[in-house]
Design a protein that fits this description.
Isoprenoid_synthase_dom_sf (chains A, B), two-stranded antiparallel sheet, Farnesyl Diphosphate Synthase, about 75% helix, mainly alpha, about 350 residues, 2 strands, Polyprenyl_synt (chains A, B), homodimer, globular
């Protein structure tokens, strides 16, 4: 396997993400080159900060979705590479801003950019990458793609503000939480999968199907992440088990355990999440309560249901290597918790 | 005068900004309504934060430039209102992020949003407004306007990062500084004045002339701001005299005084700007040194030269109420220091 694909570098079984990696290999090489080029600037701090995060080994699943969904309709131009890079820049900008918002010290197992260059650089380089993303979209000349991605930019930010508004609030409902992750995570998956068919000139029905696929995949992906934070190992995540807990994040397992808990347990959760009593002993107790109420199992069940919805969204599309690769991505996401 | 135009509310002589206020009054009413509508969200924190800044009495000079430059070519549609609102949202997003970057406590004489809602909300609501700005641009269907404004978004952020990279560095040259303010301030003035002729379908030469006008006006505007920080009163600025000094900002008067200073004076500047020895006594001494080397006078001379360049850029355009209003805006900006 080549050296350009971050996944291939990890030198471990890539599971069922292999079909999409293989399918998009040549295009991803061009995406990676465009990423480096468009993160460049005479202002030296910009490539320093940007490349710190860009080179830190994210899977680049989102740009692969754009490339694969364009390939599905036989697209032969250059614009899908620009759109895929725009999607990755939007994601990177979000991560830079998230680290400031969450006051995170780590990102993908490395010091976060804000710890090295400060909050200021993280905010402003994020803004720069967002500006570059929109420039690349404009270069494609596709007003439809611009509409989808500008909608996504606003919806993602709205989801992040909603998350901030409900953060450390144990009264957050399951519906609130799904609304948060629909915005902050799933919307970009949906947009990434929608701009592929758009640039390829696919029919509206196909475009809607792939948007639905991306949305459901994104919801499954985030719920799996939530579950791993209470049950995975830090190597899988690039962060440590219990990070969400220590940051006071109200995620699906916490919501379910809280709803099903007695008054004493609820007081524990409020102490932990709202008042920050979240040491190792508290984390141990949280895991025990989540286990007691099968909150992890039921979070997994929800992830599986969204995974099924993602697969179902693909069913009207003719079978093709791209469709197969997209189905395997769903399995790969789910497999992280099985 | 009506209540909708922030300038009119101030109940003091509006000087020569009156022609552009009068010219754009009806359209600005629609801009103000669109601002309120597009800053709305089911996520309550968004309009709270956005309206705090939006209602704080900025002059809205940038959207007026878009409206006036569209009016100059007899534009009769709706899209100039959307573009003007986009420009104002880009500006507001920049202010929200700037306050986080500068760790500012005050903005336009009120507590900054980050002091009330935290850095997190300022970053994310800024992102939301930027997303909304791009959505409105897309609604106009003008790929040319999208190009100008997405270029501006990247260039503004690049200028801000450059400012961060040279911040508190007394070795900043005059050229560095002009590059910083060209990006962080003048680019948006240029873009605001360019999208007016674009949406009105004006000739390329007119578009270039108005872009040049906006760029020169923006440079003059920023230099005047720099001068006022060492010589104005806080009522003029919505901030306090000496704010730039206390934040360690290297602005034109400081650069000129430093370049012209002897070794003892240079040591004073390094202490003040780089090491933060910037109490009231230091500010007094800084003003004295700026006076001694005529650094304020020469900063004003540069502002006047850019003002002349802005007027000259308009000279190929036929005389019209809009051109007259744009000329008066130049005089208004300069008049703040005369």
């Amino acid at each position: 396997m080549g050296a350009v694909t971050p996944l291939a570098k990890e030198n471990k079984p890539t599971g069922s993400v292999k079909p999409i990696v293989d399918l998009t290999r040549a295009d991803m090489e061009r995406v990676n080159q465009l990423i480096l080029s468009k993160a460049g600037s005479d202002v030296q701090m910009i490539p320093e900060v940007a490349n710190h995060l860009i080179s830190s080994g994210g899977k680049r699943l989102r740009p692969m979705l754009t490339l694969a969904t364009a390939a599905m309709f036989g697209y032969r131009g250059e614009h899908h590479v620009r759109l895929a890079t725009s999607v990755e820049f939007m994601h990177t900008a979000t991560l830079l801003h998230d680290d400031v918002v969450d006051e995170s010290d780590l990102r993908r197992g490395k010091s976060s950019a804000r710890m090295i260059w400060g909050n200021q650089a993280s905010v402003l380089v994020g803004d720069f990458l967002l500006g570059q993303a929109f420039r690349m979209m404009v270069e494609t000349g596709s007003m439809q793609a611009l509409k989808v991605l500008s909608d996504a930019a606003a919806v993602i930010a709205e989801g992040e503000v909603f998350q901030l508004a409900v953060s450390k609030k144990m009264e957050t409902t399951e519906d609130d939480y799904i609304a948060v992750i629909r915005g902050k995570t799933a919307e970009l998956f949906a947009a990434a999968a929608e701009v592929g068919p758009i640039i390829a000139g696919a029919a509206d029905a196909d475009r809607v199907a792939l948007r639905d696929y991306g949305m459901a995949l994104g919801l499954a992906f985030q719920l799996v992440d939530d579950v791993l934070d209470y049950g995975g190992s830090s190597a899988d995540l690039g962060k440590n088990v219990g990070d969400d807990f220590r940051e006071g994040k109200v995620t699906m397992p916490v919501i379910l355990a809280y709803q099903r808990g007695n008054e004493i347990e609820r007081a524990f959760w409020r102490n932990a999440i709202e008042d920050g009593v979240n040491d190792d002993a508290a984390l141990e107790k949280a895991r025990m309560l989540i286990e007691k109420h099968d909150a992890l199992g039921d979070s997994i069940a929800r992830a599986l249901a969204y995974g099924e919805a993602a697969r179902a969204a693909l069913s009207p599309l003719p079978m093709s290597p791209a469709r197969h690769a997209l189905e395997e991505v769903v399995d790969f996401c789910i497999a992280r918790i099985s």
